[in-house]
Specification:
Blueprint (H helix, E strand, L loop, with lengths): L2 H32 L3 H27 L12 H35 L11 H26 L2 H28 L5 H28 L6 H12 L6 E10 L2 E10 L5 H18 L3 E10 L3
Parallel strand pairs: 2-3
Antiparallel strand pairs: 1-2
Helix pairs in contact: 1-2, 1-4, 2-3, 2-5, 3-5, 3-6, 4-5, 5-6
Length: about 300
């Protein structure tokens, strides 16, 4: 997929997310206040943060798909990975805040006898709306991430599915609270917060590998080898080096060809390897082929 198509996909998906997150923000505030649910109101804050983060993804996603220039001759994809790291940090911060808030509520309830406000049935409306909308956004965003190979869209998809789990737990907590078990609402929130934090850590670890020239996965390296070997004139593979560049790959490969071949013929073989690898592996941004004379 070319850069322009990837950029268009990122723009479309992030605009969807911005619009629906704004709608959810409004719904949560209204029904959270009317339904007397502090958990739903806190969830509205999360939706507001989602809007801010998604707007940043919109701009960074488009910027990272710019063509290489004099300042960035290899492209701009790493900017997206850096943004994803920041997004992972945001998820961890949110998780920590939710855990602290839930723990304080439980401590106040059990040790100090401070009552937890029992929500009203209307609060469920906002929670169910969130589950439906976020599940739909997750499906669409996850499919688009696989097409565009965008770390930011992957992070956004994880955020959507995290919100689904948050909302399911919140729904359980609200239902139990409506039946008198008010302390289940903060407990559910803490469990979900741990899940959000786990996802944040995972995003950071994966994205760091994309900005520090981590080698490709074994499956990718083996595929490069097999493709190169399949080219007529390639006697053996001398060396392969790969490095991640966002979700793209740079490949450097050394091949041996008959030492008696002309320079032109050796170049043709190298070009055939280059073209085949980049054609069959869309996430390979560039394949550099070096030709060595074969020595028995």
């Amino acid at each position: 997929m070319d850069i322009k198509k990837e950029s268009n996909i990122i723009t479309k998906i992030t605009l969807y997310a911005i619009i629906f997150n704004i709608l959810l923000l409004i719904v949560k505030i209204i029904f959270g206040i009317i339904g007397k649910s502090s958990a739903v109101i806190n969830s509205a804050i999360d939706s507001g943060l989602d809007v801010i983060v998604t707007v940043s993804i919109l701009f960074i996603g488009r910027f990272s798909r710019k063509k290489p220039d004099k300042s960035h001759p290899y492209g701009h994809e790493k900017f997206e990975s850096i943004t994803t790291i920041a997004f992972g940090i945001v998820l961890i911060v949110i998780a920590v805040q939710l855990v602290i808030g839930g723990a304080e509520t439980l401590i106040d309830y059990f040790s100090k006898g401070i009552e937890i406000t029992q929500p009203e049935t209307l609060a469920i409306v906002a929670v169910i709306a969130t589950i439906v909308v976020k599940l739909g956004l997750f499906v669409v965003t996850n499919q688009s991430y696989r097409r565009a190979k965008s770390p930011a869209l992957k992070a956004l998809a994880i955020d959507h599915i995290s919100d689904v789990f948050v909302s399911v737990a919140l729904l359980v907590g609200v239902v139990l609270a409506l039946n008198g078990f008010v302390f289940f609402e903060p407990i559910a929130g803490i469990l979900v917060a741990l899940f959000i934090g786990y996802n944040g850590v995972g995003l950071i670890i994966e994205s760091i590998g994309q900005v520090v020239d981590e080698a490709a996965e074994k499956e990718d390296i083996n595929q490069v080898k097999e493709l190169a070997k399949s080219v007529s004139g390639v006697i053996k593979i001398d060396k392969i080096r790969t490095r991640k560049f966002g979700l793209k790959l740079f490949v450097d490969i050394e091949i041996s060809v008959d030492g008696n071949l002309t320079v032109d013929k050796g170049h043709d073989i190298a070009e055939a390897v280059h073209d085949l690898v980049e054609k069959e592996m869309e996430h390979v941004k560039h394949c550099m082929v070096h030709v060595n004379p074969y020595i028995e």
